[in-house]
Amino acid sequence: MNDILKMYKEDLLRAILEFGRGNGEADANDLLVDVAGEQRLFEQATLEMEKEKLIRRKGECIVLTPSGREAAEKIYAKHRFIEKYFIEVFNETNAHILAHALEHCISDSLLAKMQGELALMSDTLNLSDLKTGEQAVILAIAVPDKKLLSRLLGIGLSPRSKVKLFEKLPGQLVVEVEGRKIALDMFIADKVLVSKEDPKKAG
Amino acid sequence: MESVKVLLVGQPNSGKSSLLNALAGAKAIVSNYPGTTVEVTKAKTLLERVEVEIIDTPGIYSLSDATLEEKVTKEYILEGDYDLVVNLVDATSLERGLYLTLQLRETGIPLVVALNFVEDARRKGVVSNINKLSDGLGAPVITINPLTGHGLKALSLIISEADKLQTEVKPLIIQYDDHIEEALKEIHSKLPPTMKMYRRFAALRALEGDEEFNSLLTDPIDKLLPEEVKKYHPDLSGDIMLTRYGCASVISKQCIKVTSIRGLKEPFSERLDRVLINPRYGWILCLSTLIAIFYIMLVLGGFLQDKSVEAAEAMVDWIIKSWSLTGVAADILGNALSGAASGVGIALAYVLIFYILLSLLEDTGLLSRIVLSFSRFLAKLDLPGNAVVPMMLNFGCTVPAISATRILRNRAERLRATATYVGIPCSSRTAIIMGLVASYAGVNYAIATYVIAIVSGLLFSKISGLFVKVEPSPFLLELPPYRKPLLHNVAVKSWIRMQDFVKVVIPLLIFGGVVYGLMEYVGLVDFLILPLTPLSLWLRLPPEAVVPLIYGYLQKDLTISMLFTVLGTTDISSYLSSTQLFIFGLQASIQFPCIIASSMAWKEFGWKVAVYLTISGFVYGVLIAGLIANFVVALC
Q: Which residues in chain B touch residue A22, judged by CB atoms under 8 angstroms apart?
């Protein structure tokens, strides 16, 4: 039972993070549908998480506390990485589901090993991995919030766009895309996957 | 047509306000979109002998609901209360501009594309073929230049004949892949039978996760989607957006020719950005902006305020004398008129200068660099970078600075920015620090007062965070290319921004003057101040010195002369020690500055917030000034 609860709590945290990208609030009913489980489990999990000061309840809405956000980002990063790993290393179509299962039990040391291996194997980087002045082509934008994706596209950050890192600032990047300079934070930068090689030349 | 209503829609920095100015001049009025703080500019003008109302919607990157601006613009577009949409597109970044254009074309609304900055694009080696662009979009395209007037005649003609376009233009259909088309068909059939919007567009919006359109459906969208579609498109909305962007990219590539311009020296703007956007030198921009604004506000603003208030007060005296008024009427009218006079003084001296500076910074492209360099510092206060704009205005006058917080995203951010005004001195508070602390206690005391006040203000905002939480949101800011500002545009923009101040703040100042005049007449002022005199023990000041401190809340600019009056001399130094002057300066500076600022907070945030800011700000100032006073006494 404890393991189930732990996993359920982690799933919830990640879901609150994803649902709450817009205004920071996640609707409890949306969460119940997204993170399938009994009402009782949901109530128990949210109650415990509130006690652990990970979330706050605002009526029907749930908001992450700063420490809750940190924990959620960590799980979310794990999830994304595992998904990426199985797609890139094994070309696995069920990577998303695998990530759902593995994100709860993977140890930090194994994660680090996998990360090292993947970095060796592929030239897929995050925007924040680029050095100042380096050019790359955007491969994918992995933001969960579709409203943010729409804005990013409208500002010119889209797959196949050429991007150049103009400057690294503490916690922020300034990139050039479509001849425009765009400043963005690491939350966005980490979700923009780029390749230093031109895909046309490689393929 | 007899009259035409036109909606200007475009991405930020695409030149919408320049176009509005070129078409309608200074006749524009700013108003808030009902129920929001998003500002919308409207103007009426005559084009080709047809009466035209132009509505300039807030600049947006795409039609989603991510920001308040996007919601307002979407609302305008979907309400359909217009004859034509003019979509401004920046030719120097055509591809991404077309993303919004395609979204607009999919709605099926009558639309004309106005391509701006064509010369700039050509200078970068990008030449666009208008005919091909028009073919690709299925809508008329014209090139314009609001600065030279090029293309405005053609645009006016199209606007004046908007009814023609309404029948000609059909919605654009972007072909999505088979699964998405299947899903569209499915949703299409589930939409209510009669709709104001084009059905395919409504179905698309629903699939893209727009809550407003989802609510039109009987079942949640997930249930309506065929299993096959879900299997191939686990991220359906993302795939739709990416297809649309791909379409924009194809159209833009078809109609532009890029010739690389060789041997071009790195332009000055690039070298400037290397210094301004730099982890090591970026702070120089912050500091120099602060110092420049501070000096301009203080020196130029102070000079202008003195002169204009002097002139206005001479006029008030003249009016009272020539009408030969006496007694209550003279008192109240005198106070009302001097309220108006100080309003005009502040308006001319600080607000107009500030808005001219702001418009200049904005039109040159410097403002976003300043916002970027402040964003890291302000993030420590949970505030976004653009909070620096109202905070700079606060150096002039707190009252308009409260309404200027409207540029922030939400109430929580606005409250947190306003909370800094409890300590960051406005010009009236600076006048006390300069005129009293610096003159009688010395420059070092004045600097200390200034620094402590600013730090206390930032701290007060931070403490307010215990009650008003700001939820972090992703940071994304475009740094537009540097452009030479057009003085006419700057003047028009500043004037438009001034109107709010003239309409709201000056009446408040007159009202404040009348209320104060009445209170003084019936003796309410003394009655209010008396119970607070014991504060003198805690602040280690003579009891009568507390009177001007409280009085200062009613009329800040009279604090110093009131101190002279209660002490019965201008020889302050023999009555108050340097430390006491320092404490007096601190107490006068750290509080929500005056009754007019409180009324403004009331108007913007409601009475609860106004009372909270006023009372807790006052207590906070008493606490800090008193602690320092007692600490100094203990040391000696």
A: 65-66
> CA B487, CA B501: separation in Å to the nearest integer?
21
Closest Cβ opposite residue A168 in set B274, B279, B472: B279
Considering only CB atoms, A169 lies closest to which of B95, B376, B481, namely: B376
Question: Which residues on B lie below 8 Å from A155 (Cβ)?
Answer: 61, 96, 476, 478
CA dihedral A39, A41, A42, A48 (to 10 degrees): 140
Count Cβ neighbours within 10 Å for each residue of B66-82 and write b for 16 or more, e otherwise.
bbbbbbbbbebbbeeeb
User: Could you tell me which chain B residue has the CA closest to the CA of A142?
Assistant: B238
Please judge whether B475 and A185 are an interchain contact, meaning their C-beta atoms are less than 8 angstroms apart.
Answer: yes
Identify which of A146, A155, A168 has the shortest CB distance to residue B96.
A155
Q: Is the ipTM of this complex over 0.90?
A: no
| Per-residue pLDDT tens digits for B46-58 | 888 899 999 999 8
Q: Does B573 touch chain A (CB under 8 A)?
A: no
- DSSP per-residue string spanning B206-264: HHTT-HHHHTTSSS-HHHHS-HHHHHH-TTHHHHHHHHHHHHHHHHHHHHEEE---TTP
Name residue A177's beta-bridge partners. A163, A180
How many angstroms from the chain centroid is the CA of residue B589?
25
CA distances to A200, B462, B609, B624 from B467, in Å:
54, 10, 11, 20
Helix (H), strand (E), coil (C) string for B526-546:
HHHHHHHCCHHHHHCCCHHHH
With 70 as the cut, is the pLDDT of residue A66 above it? Answer: yes
**Can you read off the two tokens belonging to residue B369?**
């660099």
Distance from CA of B189 to the nearest CA of A (A): 24
Q: Which two tokens stand for residue B441?
A: 């206690």
Cβ contacts of B124 on chain A, cutoff 8 Å: 179
CA distances from B204 to B79, B173, B241, B248 (A): 17, 11, 10, 17
Any A CB within 8 A of B193 CB: no
What integer is the mean pLDDT of A71-99? 80
Q: SS3 string of B555-613?
A: CHHHHHHHHHHHHCCCCHHHCCCHHHHHHHHHHHHCCCCCHHHHHHHHHHHCHHHHHHH
Give the whole-angstrom CA distance, residue B335 versus residue B518: 9
Distances (CA, A) of B415 to B124, B246, B402, B409: 44, 41, 9, 11
The verdict on a CB contact (< 8 Å) between B209 and A152 is no
The length of chain B in residues reads 636
Is the CB of B214 inside 8 Å of chain A's CB atoms? no
Q: Is B234 in CB contact (< 8 Å) with chain A?
A: yes
Predicted TM-score of the model (pTM): 0.76
Residues A186 and A172: beta-carbon distance below 8 Å: yes
Beta bridge partners of B46: B51
